Amino acid sequence: DQQVKQNSPSLSVQEGRISILNCDYTNSMFDYFLWYKKYPAEGPTFLISISSIKDKNEDGRFTVFLNKSAKHLSLHIVPSQPGDSAVYFCAASAKGDKLVFGAGTILRVKS
Amino acid sequence: DVKVTQSSRYLVKRTGEKVFLECVQDMDHENMFWYRQDPGLGLRLIYFSYDVKMKEKGDIPEGYSVSREKKERFSLILESASTNQTSMYLCASNFEYRSGGYTFGSGTRLTVV
């Protein structure tokens, strides 16, 4: 049973526009959420995180939104750049336990 | 620059071979993890370790074992490689069991023929 779901396997966006990647979770005990970015033949790298006490966290072009009542989080990238093309993984943990990852979304930014 | 190093980027092994995947971290992290990444399935946890000589099964431990004789090194062992173990293998570490964010290695692409 997948506790973290990324229902869109892929997303294609024009350069300069907004990319929105979505993630849903089922475990109400999750209190810490992260996004990782992965290029081919490389390991995932940490992008941005959010604690359940917040509903928004921003870092440059990247913003993560958390809607606890809907058990939903999203990553916004504005403006999107070709170098953002990668696989994005959503991850969550409950009270510091090990991370649970989603299946990933492939983002393609077209120039 | 702190890092997690996986000894091989690409490996090709034959069915039935015993395969060792090595991972070393230089951050003095207590916790280390082995994942495999497959399209559509994301990152699935195979084994993890929160201390030297300690190991815990993850979600998909069947067909694998691990060894952690030193704090900085965590080895994944495929006892008898099979074609369904063809995958990208990722090692990760973090400082505390309860702190969340992981540092990943670059991965090992294993093909079993």
Plain-language structure description:
- Chain A has 111 residues and is mostly beta strands.
- Helix content of chain A is 0%, strand content 54%.
- Chain A has strands at residues 4-5, 10-14, 19-25, 32-38, 45-51, 56-59, 62-67, 72-77, 86-93, 100-101, 105-110.
- By secondary structure, chain B is an all-beta fold.
- In chain B, strands 2, 5, 6, 7, 10, 11 and 12 form a seven-stranded mixed beta sheet that branches. In chain B, strands 3-9-8 form a three-stranded antiparallel beta sheet, with no helix packed on it. Chain B has a two-stranded antiparallel sheet with strand order 1-4.
- The termini of chain B are far apart.
- The relative contact order of chain B is 0.34.
- The chains are: A mainly beta (111), B mainly beta (113).
List the helices and strands and how they pair.
The complex is a heterodimer of chains A (111) and B (113).
Chain A: E1 4-5, E2 10-14, E3 19-25, E4 32-38, E5 45-51, E6 56-59, E7 62-67, E8 72-77, E9 86-93, E10 100-101, E11 105-110
Parallel strand pairs in A: 2-11
Antiparallel strand pairs in A: 1-3, 3-8, 4-5, 4-9, 6-7, 7-8, 9-10, 9-11
Chain B: E1 4-6, E2 10-13, E3 19-21, E4 23-25, E5 31-38, E6 42-49, E7 56-57, E8 64-70, E9 73-78, E10 87-94, E11 103-104, E12 108-112
Parallel strand pairs in B: 2-12
Antiparallel strand pairs in B: 1-4, 3-9, 5-6, 5-10, 6-7, 8-9, 10-11, 10-12
Question: Structural class of the helices, strands and pairings of chain B?
Answer: mainly beta
Supply the helix-strand structural class of chain A.
Answer: mainly beta
Strand content of chain A: over 45%
Helices of chain A, by number, come to 0
Stretches with pLDDT under 50, minimum 5 residues of chain B:
none
Biggest chain contact = A-B, 23 and 26 residues
**Mean pLDDT across all amino acids of chain B:** 92
Order of helices and strands of chain B: EEEEEEEEEEEE
Compute the number of strand runs of chain B.
12
End-to-end separation of chain B in angstroms reads 36 Å
Record field, number of beta strands of chain A: 11
Give helix % range of chain A. under 10%
Residues in helices of chain B, as a percent range: under 10%
Low-confidence stretches of chain A: none
**Largest sheet properties of chain A:** 6 strands, mixed
Taken as a percent bin, the fraction of beta residues of chain B is: over 45%
The average pLDDT value of chain A, as a whole number, equals 94
What's the helix count of chain B? 0
